Structures are given as C-alpha cells and as structure tokens.
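Folding follows sequence. Below is one example:
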Amino acid sequence: LNVEAAPGGSANESFTVGSDRVLSITDVVFQNPAGATGRVSLMRDGEVLLESELANFRDLDLHFVAPFRFDESATVELLLECGTPGPGGDSCAVGATVIGFVDQAD
C-alpha cells in the first residue's frame, strides 16, 4: 500500500479481502523514506490496529505472534495524515508492506 498527501492533508489506500477468504497479517513494514512528519495508521474496517508517528522512523518493521485477522469482505486500509514533508519534498509519501497468508473462510 502506498499513500501520498499534501502538507496538512490526509490520504488513504485500501483493498478488500475477497469473498470466501480470510487474510491473516503476520508482519507489517512501514516505510517513510523521505523522513516526513505526521501519522500513519493501519486500519481494519475503519478501526485503527496500528498507529505511528512518522517522525519516529524511516523504516519500521513489526512482527506478530498472533496475526491480525481480516474476515471475508473486510477492508485493509493505510491512512496517512501529512504534517511536514521530508527535506526537499512537497508531499508526504508513505508505504506499508503487509505479509501474511490467505485461507478459505469457514
């Protein structure tokens, strides 16, 4: 998931889990390569699961013992609230790589 927003603005990117599928996310890597400030959130159907201040990292990898579960038709969303772009930039650009596995729904 990749998101870009203007200073003071917000943007999001999302995808929906397919029908008859369950997504289990075991790892997340947030990327803030330009060093922007603001906030990034990983959400499930509008509920914040992870939230971090961009000024605290350039790359932040998170690994879970118990995965985040997204049932069929659930939405995985990356929300970016841009404070200040990194040096020389005119917008905040943030990414998240989600790793896990997909199973058949019960």
The beta strands are 2-5, 10-16, 21-31, 37-44, 47-53, 59-70, 75-84, 92-104. The CA atoms of residues 3 and 94 lie 5 Å apart.
